[in-house]
Write a structure and sequence with these properties.
Elements lengths: L3 H14 L7 E6 L4 H13 L3 E6 L4 H8 L2 H4 L4 H9 L2 E6 L12 H10 L1 H12 L4 E6 L3 H6 L4 H11 L7 H19 L4 E6 L2 E6 L6 E3 L9 E4 L7 E5 L4 E3 L2 E3 L3 E5 L2 E6 L4 H8 L8 E7 L11 H4 L5 E7 L14 E7 L5 E4 L2 E5 L2 E2 L4
Parallel strand pairs: 1-2, 1-3, 3-4
Antiparallel strand pairs: 5-6, 5-17, 6-9, 7-8, 8-14, 9-12, 10-11, 12-13, 14-15, 15-16, 17-18, 18-19
Protein backbone atom coordinates (compact mmCIF):
# COMPACT_ATOMS: atom_id res chain seq x y z
CA UNK A 1 0.00 0.00 0.00
CA UNK A 2 1.37 3.40 -1.00
CA UNK A 3 2.02 6.02 1.66
CA UNK A 4 -0.08 9.08 0.81
CA UNK A 5 2.66 11.26 2.31
CA UNK A 6 5.05 10.20 -0.47
CA UNK A 7 2.48 11.18 -3.10
CA UNK A 8 1.96 14.54 -1.38
CA UNK A 9 5.72 15.12 -1.29
CA UNK A 10 6.11 14.43 -5.01
CA UNK A 11 3.20 16.77 -5.74
CA UNK A 12 4.70 19.45 -3.47
CA UNK A 13 8.05 19.28 -5.28
CA UNK A 14 6.55 19.34 -8.77
CA UNK A 15 3.83 21.95 -8.26
CA UNK A 16 5.28 24.23 -5.57
CA UNK A 17 9.05 23.80 -5.20
CA UNK A 18 10.12 23.74 -8.84
CA UNK A 19 6.84 24.50 -10.60
CA UNK A 20 7.23 22.11 -13.53
CA UNK A 21 5.87 23.47 -16.82
CA UNK A 22 5.27 21.87 -20.19
CA UNK A 23 8.55 21.13 -21.96
CA UNK A 24 10.78 21.43 -18.88
CA UNK A 25 13.67 18.94 -18.70
CA UNK A 26 13.90 17.74 -15.08
CA UNK A 27 16.75 15.55 -13.84
CA UNK A 28 15.87 13.24 -10.94
CA UNK A 29 18.94 11.85 -9.18
CA UNK A 30 18.64 9.12 -6.55
CA UNK A 31 20.08 6.02 -4.94
CA UNK A 32 18.00 2.82 -5.09
CA UNK A 33 16.74 3.42 -1.53
CA UNK A 34 14.97 6.55 -2.78
CA UNK A 35 13.11 4.88 -5.63
CA UNK A 36 9.56 5.19 -4.17
CA UNK A 37 9.82 9.00 -4.16
CA UNK A 38 11.68 9.07 -7.49
CA UNK A 39 8.86 7.05 -9.08
CA UNK A 40 6.12 9.34 -7.76
CA UNK A 41 8.07 12.41 -8.85
CA UNK A 42 8.66 10.93 -12.31
CA UNK A 43 4.90 10.51 -12.67
CA UNK A 44 4.21 14.05 -11.43
CA UNK A 45 6.67 15.59 -13.93
CA UNK A 46 4.99 13.67 -16.76
CA UNK A 47 1.54 14.83 -15.63
CA UNK A 48 2.81 18.43 -15.72
CA UNK A 49 4.05 18.02 -19.30
CA UNK A 50 7.75 17.91 -18.43
CA UNK A 51 10.53 15.58 -19.55
CA UNK A 52 11.89 13.63 -16.55
CA UNK A 53 15.40 12.14 -16.75
CA UNK A 54 16.44 9.55 -14.18
CA UNK A 55 19.98 9.56 -12.76
CA UNK A 56 20.41 6.41 -10.64
CA UNK A 57 23.61 6.05 -8.58
CA UNK A 58 24.12 2.69 -6.82
CA UNK A 59 25.28 2.97 -3.23
CA UNK A 60 28.60 1.30 -3.96
CA UNK A 61 29.60 3.68 -6.79
CA UNK A 62 31.13 6.55 -4.81
CA UNK A 63 33.12 4.25 -2.55
CA UNK A 64 34.47 2.36 -5.57
CA UNK A 65 35.35 5.63 -7.28
CA UNK A 66 37.47 6.96 -4.44
CA UNK A 67 39.21 3.62 -3.94
CA UNK A 68 39.93 2.81 -7.58
CA UNK A 69 40.21 6.11 -9.48
CA UNK A 70 43.68 7.23 -10.59
CA UNK A 71 44.71 10.92 -10.28
CA UNK A 72 43.75 11.73 -13.88
CA UNK A 73 40.30 10.28 -13.21
CA UNK A 74 39.88 12.24 -9.97
CA UNK A 75 40.73 15.43 -11.92
CA UNK A 76 38.21 14.64 -14.68
CA UNK A 77 35.20 16.93 -15.11
CA UNK A 78 32.24 14.86 -16.29
CA UNK A 79 30.91 16.15 -19.65
CA UNK A 80 27.60 14.43 -18.89
CA UNK A 81 27.11 16.37 -15.65
CA UNK A 82 28.20 19.57 -17.38
CA UNK A 83 25.63 18.99 -20.13
CA UNK A 84 22.95 18.44 -17.50
CA UNK A 85 23.94 21.66 -15.74
CA UNK A 86 23.65 23.62 -18.98
CA UNK A 87 20.50 22.07 -20.47
CA UNK A 88 18.04 21.05 -17.75
CA UNK A 89 15.53 23.38 -16.08
CA UNK A 90 15.89 21.73 -12.68
CA UNK A 91 17.63 18.93 -10.83
CA UNK A 92 16.00 17.11 -7.95
CA UNK A 93 18.27 15.11 -5.67
CA UNK A 94 16.38 12.51 -3.65
CA UNK A 95 18.38 11.86 -0.48
CA UNK A 96 17.97 8.31 0.77
CA UNK A 97 21.01 6.51 2.10
CA UNK A 98 21.38 2.86 2.98
CA UNK A 99 24.87 3.39 4.48
CA UNK A 100 25.86 6.88 5.58
CA UNK A 101 29.40 5.79 6.59
CA UNK A 102 30.55 4.28 3.32
CA UNK A 103 33.12 7.05 2.75
CA UNK A 104 34.63 6.92 6.24
CA UNK A 105 37.93 5.44 5.04
CA UNK A 106 38.36 7.71 2.03
CA UNK A 107 41.47 9.91 1.82
CA UNK A 108 40.28 13.50 2.51
CA UNK A 109 42.74 14.85 -0.06
CA UNK A 110 41.03 12.76 -2.74
CA UNK A 111 37.66 14.15 -1.70
CA UNK A 112 38.95 17.73 -1.92
CA UNK A 113 40.58 17.03 -5.30
CA UNK A 114 37.40 15.50 -6.72
CA UNK A 115 35.37 18.50 -5.57
CA UNK A 116 37.82 20.82 -7.30
CA UNK A 117 37.24 18.95 -10.58
CA UNK A 118 33.51 19.65 -10.23
CA UNK A 119 34.04 23.40 -10.17
CA UNK A 120 33.02 24.02 -13.83
CA UNK A 121 29.80 22.11 -13.18
CA UNK A 122 29.05 24.11 -10.05
CA UNK A 123 29.85 27.37 -11.84
CA UNK A 124 27.38 26.46 -14.59
CA UNK A 125 24.71 25.60 -12.02
CA UNK A 126 25.11 28.78 -10.02
CA UNK A 127 25.40 31.04 -13.05
CA UNK A 128 22.06 29.79 -14.33
CA UNK A 129 20.53 29.87 -10.86
CA UNK A 130 21.47 33.55 -10.50
CA UNK A 131 19.54 34.24 -13.73
CA UNK A 132 16.53 32.18 -12.56
CA UNK A 133 17.09 29.73 -15.41
CA UNK A 134 17.69 26.68 -13.24
CA UNK A 135 16.65 25.21 -9.89
CA UNK A 136 18.43 22.71 -7.67
CA UNK A 137 16.13 20.88 -5.30
CA UNK A 138 17.04 18.46 -2.49
CA UNK A 139 14.35 16.31 -0.91
CA UNK A 140 14.67 13.38 1.50
CA UNK A 141 13.10 9.96 1.42
CA UNK A 142 13.33 8.09 4.75
CA UNK A 143 15.80 5.19 4.49
CA UNK A 144 17.36 2.79 6.98
CA UNK A 145 20.81 4.39 6.92
CA UNK A 146 19.46 7.86 7.66
CA UNK A 147 17.20 6.52 10.43
CA UNK A 148 20.18 4.80 12.05
CA UNK A 149 22.23 8.02 11.92
CA UNK A 150 19.36 9.87 13.58
CA UNK A 151 19.12 7.09 16.20
CA UNK A 152 15.48 6.37 15.40
CA UNK A 153 13.51 3.40 14.20
CA UNK A 154 12.53 3.64 10.53
CA UNK A 155 8.88 4.20 11.45
CA UNK A 156 9.69 7.01 13.87
CA UNK A 157 12.09 8.54 11.37
CA UNK A 158 9.42 8.50 8.65
CA UNK A 159 7.05 10.38 10.95
CA UNK A 160 9.81 12.87 11.84
CA UNK A 161 10.68 13.49 8.18
CA UNK A 162 7.13 13.90 6.95
CA UNK A 163 6.25 16.26 9.83
CA UNK A 164 9.26 18.43 9.00
CA UNK A 165 8.20 18.45 5.34
CA UNK A 166 4.60 19.36 6.32
CA UNK A 167 3.29 16.50 4.15
CA UNK A 168 1.50 15.06 7.17
CA UNK A 169 -1.03 17.82 6.46
CA UNK A 170 -3.88 17.64 3.98
CA UNK A 171 -2.59 20.64 1.99
CA UNK A 172 1.22 20.92 2.23
CA UNK A 173 1.35 23.63 -0.44
CA UNK A 174 -0.87 25.94 1.63
CA UNK A 175 1.22 25.15 4.72
CA UNK A 176 4.48 26.13 2.97
CA UNK A 177 2.91 29.32 1.63
CA UNK A 178 2.10 30.27 5.24
CA UNK A 179 5.71 29.55 6.27
CA UNK A 180 6.90 31.71 3.38
CA UNK A 181 4.80 34.69 4.47
CA UNK A 182 6.05 34.48 8.07
CA UNK A 183 9.70 34.18 7.09
CA UNK A 184 9.45 37.01 4.59
CA UNK A 185 8.81 39.38 7.51
CA UNK A 186 11.99 38.12 9.23
CA UNK A 187 14.03 38.52 6.05
CA UNK A 188 12.80 42.10 5.63
CA UNK A 189 13.75 42.89 9.23
CA UNK A 190 17.26 41.48 8.77
CA UNK A 191 17.65 43.32 5.45
CA UNK A 192 17.86 46.51 7.52
CA UNK A 193 20.94 45.17 9.33
CA UNK A 194 24.42 46.34 8.34
CA UNK A 195 26.55 45.05 11.21
CA UNK A 196 25.83 41.57 12.57
CA UNK A 197 27.16 40.07 15.78
CA UNK A 198 26.64 36.48 16.99
CA UNK A 199 27.35 35.70 20.66
CA UNK A 200 27.21 32.37 22.47
CA UNK A 201 29.27 29.78 24.31
CA UNK A 202 32.93 30.25 23.26
CA UNK A 203 31.62 32.47 20.46
CA UNK A 204 31.81 36.14 19.65
CA UNK A 205 31.88 36.89 15.96
CA UNK A 206 31.14 40.03 13.96
CA UNK A 207 30.60 40.68 10.27
CA UNK A 208 29.18 43.20 7.84
CA UNK A 209 26.12 42.29 5.79
CA UNK A 210 25.74 45.80 4.37
CA UNK A 211 24.43 45.68 0.82
CA UNK A 212 23.66 41.98 1.03
CA UNK A 213 20.23 40.34 0.88
CA UNK A 214 18.61 38.00 3.40
CA UNK A 215 16.85 35.21 1.55
CA UNK A 216 13.63 33.55 2.65
CA UNK A 217 14.11 29.77 2.31
CA UNK A 218 10.55 28.53 1.99
CA UNK A 219 10.68 25.15 0.24
CA UNK A 220 11.73 26.16 -3.27
CA UNK A 221 15.27 24.75 -3.14
CA UNK A 222 15.29 22.38 -0.17
CA UNK A 223 12.74 20.29 1.64
CA UNK A 224 12.42 20.47 4.53
CA UNK A 225 13.14 24.17 4.64
CA UNK A 226 13.01 26.91 7.21
CA UNK A 227 15.84 29.43 7.38
CA UNK A 228 16.83 32.91 6.38
CA UNK A 229 20.35 33.41 5.08
CA UNK A 230 22.71 36.00 3.67
CA UNK A 231 26.32 36.31 2.55
CA UNK A 232 28.65 38.43 4.68
CA UNK A 233 31.03 40.93 3.14
CA UNK A 234 33.96 38.66 2.39
CA UNK A 235 36.74 40.43 4.32
CA UNK A 236 34.58 41.54 7.26
CA UNK A 237 34.30 38.44 9.47
CA UNK A 238 36.19 38.81 12.76
CA UNK A 239 36.23 36.69 15.91
CA UNK A 240 35.81 33.10 17.06
CA UNK A 241 33.00 30.58 16.83
CA UNK A 242 32.65 27.15 18.39
CA UNK A 243 30.11 24.89 16.71
CA UNK A 244 27.81 22.73 18.83
CA UNK A 245 27.23 19.86 16.46
CA UNK A 246 29.61 17.73 14.39
CA UNK A 247 30.33 19.16 10.94
CA UNK A 248 29.71 16.36 8.44
CA UNK A 249 31.19 16.31 4.96
CA UNK A 250 30.24 13.47 2.60
CA UNK A 251 29.63 11.14 5.54
CA UNK A 252 32.81 12.06 7.42
CA UNK A 253 32.48 13.71 10.81
CA UNK A 254 34.48 16.56 12.34
CA UNK A 255 33.60 17.25 15.98
CA UNK A 256 33.93 20.30 18.22
CA UNK A 257 34.98 22.64 15.41
CA UNK A 258 36.48 25.97 16.51
CA UNK A 259 37.29 28.60 13.92
CA UNK A 260 38.98 31.97 14.38
CA UNK A 261 38.62 34.62 11.68
CA UNK A 262 40.69 37.68 10.91
CA UNK A 263 39.86 40.02 8.02
CA UNK A 264 37.33 37.49 6.78
CA UNK A 265 39.66 34.50 6.65
CA UNK A 266 40.05 31.44 8.88
CA UNK A 267 43.42 31.88 10.60
CA UNK A 268 42.99 29.10 13.15
CA UNK A 269 41.05 25.84 12.76
CA UNK A 270 40.75 23.25 15.51
CA UNK A 271 38.66 20.13 16.08
CA UNK A 272 38.51 17.36 18.68
CA UNK A 273 38.16 14.78 15.90
CA UNK A 274 38.74 15.06 12.15
CA UNK A 275 41.09 18.04 12.24
CA UNK A 276 43.07 16.72 9.25
CA UNK A 277 39.91 16.64 7.11
CA UNK A 278 38.92 20.11 8.35
CA UNK A 279 42.24 21.64 7.37
CA UNK A 280 42.40 19.75 4.08
CA UNK A 281 39.03 21.11 3.00
CA UNK A 282 39.85 24.64 4.16
CA UNK A 283 42.93 24.48 1.94
CA UNK A 284 40.92 23.27 -1.07
CA UNK A 285 41.12 26.66 -2.80
CA UNK A 286 41.51 30.38 -2.10
CA UNK A 287 37.87 30.92 -1.13
CA UNK A 288 37.48 27.92 1.17
CA UNK A 289 38.68 29.80 4.27
CA UNK A 290 36.10 32.58 3.91
CA UNK A 291 32.44 32.59 4.94
CA UNK A 292 30.00 32.25 2.06
CA UNK A 293 26.80 32.08 4.10
CA UNK A 294 25.39 33.04 7.49
CA UNK A 295 21.91 31.78 8.37
CA UNK A 296 19.31 31.39 11.11
CA UNK A 297 17.29 28.16 11.34
CA UNK A 298 13.54 28.74 11.72
CA UNK A 299 11.95 25.28 11.50
CA UNK A 300 10.89 24.64 15.09
CA UNK A 301 9.40 21.33 13.98
CA UNK A 302 13.02 20.12 13.80
CA UNK A 303 14.31 20.14 17.36
CA UNK A 304 17.04 17.48 17.36
CA UNK A 305 20.31 16.78 15.57
CA UNK A 306 20.03 13.98 12.99
CA UNK A 307 23.43 14.05 11.24
CA UNK A 308 21.68 15.09 8.03
CA UNK A 309 22.53 18.66 7.07
CA UNK A 310 19.28 18.91 5.13
CA UNK A 311 17.43 18.82 8.47
CA UNK A 312 20.03 20.05 10.93
CA UNK A 313 20.72 23.44 9.34
CA UNK A 314 17.00 24.22 9.71
CA UNK A 315 16.79 23.44 13.45
CA UNK A 316 14.67 26.15 15.05
CA UNK A 317 16.93 27.96 17.50
CA UNK A 318 20.18 27.41 15.63
CA UNK A 319 22.48 29.39 13.38
CA UNK A 320 24.88 28.08 10.77
CA UNK A 321 27.73 29.49 8.78
CA UNK A 322 29.19 27.94 5.64
CA UNK A 323 32.84 28.22 4.74
CA UNK A 324 33.40 28.46 1.00
CA UNK A 325 31.15 29.41 -1.88
CA UNK A 326 28.63 32.22 -1.55
CA UNK A 327 25.09 31.77 -2.81
CA UNK A 328 24.64 34.41 -5.54
CA UNK A 329 21.09 35.37 -4.51
CA UNK A 330 22.46 36.88 -1.30
CA UNK A 331 24.87 39.20 -3.11
CA UNK A 332 27.88 37.25 -1.84
CA UNK A 333 30.80 36.98 -4.25
CA UNK A 334 33.11 34.44 -2.59
CA UNK A 335 34.08 31.72 -5.07
CA UNK A 336 35.04 28.23 -3.97
CA UNK A 337 34.31 24.62 -4.80
CA UNK A 338 33.58 24.11 -1.10
CA UNK A 339 30.32 24.99 0.64
CA UNK A 340 30.33 23.43 4.11
CA UNK A 341 27.64 24.30 6.64
CA UNK A 342 28.49 24.19 10.34
CA UNK A 343 25.80 24.54 13.01
CA UNK A 344 25.62 26.21 16.43
CA UNK A 345 22.76 25.75 18.91
CA UNK A 346 21.60 29.15 20.17
CA UNK A 347 18.87 27.96 22.55
CA UNK A 348 20.94 28.35 25.74
CA UNK A 349 22.27 31.88 25.95
CA UNK A 350 22.80 32.58 22.26
CA UNK A 351 22.25 36.12 20.98
CA UNK A 352 22.15 37.86 17.61
CA UNK A 353 22.72 41.60 17.46
CA UNK A 354 22.04 43.84 14.47
CA UNK A 355 23.33 47.42 14.28
CA UNK A 356 23.96 47.24 18.04
CA UNK A 357 20.39 46.14 18.83
CA UNK A 358 19.43 42.74 20.28
CA UNK A 359 17.28 40.89 17.71
CA UNK A 360 17.36 37.30 18.94
CA UNK A 361 17.94 35.51 22.24
CA UNK A 362 17.88 31.87 23.40
CA UNK A 363 16.85 30.61 19.97
CA UNK A 364 13.93 33.01 19.49
CA UNK A 365 13.42 36.20 17.48
CA UNK A 366 12.46 39.11 19.74
CA UNK A 367 9.10 40.70 19.00
CA UNK A 368 9.43 44.26 17.76
CA UNK A 369 13.22 44.10 17.59
Amino acid sequence: MKDVRVERLARLISRYSIGVKKGDAIAIAYEPAGEPLAEELYREVLRAGGHPMLRITPGWAQEAYFKEAAPHQIDHTSPFELYEAEKTRARVLVLATSNTRRNTGVDPKKVARAQKARRPILEAYFSRMAKNEWTFMIAPFPADGDAQEAEMSLGDYEDFVYRALLVDRADPIAAWKAVSAKQEKLARRFNRVRDLRIVGEDTDIRMSVAGRRWINCDGHHNLPDGEIFSGPVEDSVEGTIRYTYPAIYQGREVTDVRLTFKKGKVVKAEAAKGEELLRSLLDMDEGARRVGEVAVGTNYGIARFTRSILFDEKIGGSIHMAVGRSIPESGGVNRSTLHWDMIKDMRKGGEIWGNGKLLYRNGKFLVGA
